[in-house]
TrEMBL record:
SUPFAM superfamilies found in the cross-reference section: dUTPase-like
Keywords, comma-separated and alphabetical: Hydrolase, Magnesium, Metal-binding, Nucleotide metabolism
Molecular-function GO term, any one: dUTP diphosphatase activity
Protein name in UniProt: Deoxyuridine 5'-triphosphate nucleotidohydrolase
UniProt organism field: Acetomicrobium mobile (strain ATCC BAA-54 / DSM 13181 / JCM 12221 / NGA)
Enzyme class, spelled out: hydrolase
Positions of substrate binding: 68-70, 81, 85-87
């Protein structure tokens, strides 16, 4: 297993009813985020769902809010801004913007697993302005340019 870091967590409201976030299997890369409030999301609509979690992420790291594949497959529900980024200096409640791309209203209930949270190291870079970039075989080809012709 890789290096472990500590993320301080404050739980408020309904989040006090849940276990602390934890990895479901030894190889899981993310922990589940649970809804701390109830909402109905109509088809084609989105909503911010509070988790009741507040994090202190160490400098040099970020948290990424990612969709749960089961919600996407079974209900057409996903994270609108996937992945959502939580910076190390943010101290507000972790919220999840869910969008319902399905055909039926989606009921979010307190305790539902609505997203995953992945903690990742952040590489800071310096940008250098240049007149031109080095040539490559691919060049400016993008958006499917390496696929079948």
């Amino acid at each position: 297993m890789g290096d472990s870091i500590k993320v301080k967590v404050s739980r408020r409201g309904n989040a006090l009813r849940f276990d602390m976030p934890s990895y479901m299997t030894p190889s899981s890369s993310g922990v589940d985020l649970r809804a701390a409030e109830e909402k109905t999301i109509e088809p084609g609509s989105w909503a911010l769902i509070g988790t009741g979690l507040y994090l202190e992420i160490p400098m040099g790291y970020e948290a990424q809010v990612r969709p749960r594949s089961g919600l996407a497959l079974k209900h057409g529900v996903t994270v609108l801004n996937a992945p959502g980024t939580i910076d190390a200096d943010y101290r507000g409640e972790v919220g999840v913007i869910l969008i319902n791309l399905g055909r039926e209203p989606f009921e979010v209930k307190v305790g539902d697993r609505i997203a995953q949270l992945v903690i990742s190291a952040v590489c800071r870079v310096g940008f250098e302005e240049v007149e031109s970039l080095s040539e490559t075989a691919r060049g400016a080809g993008g958006f499917g340019s390496t696929g079948l012709k």
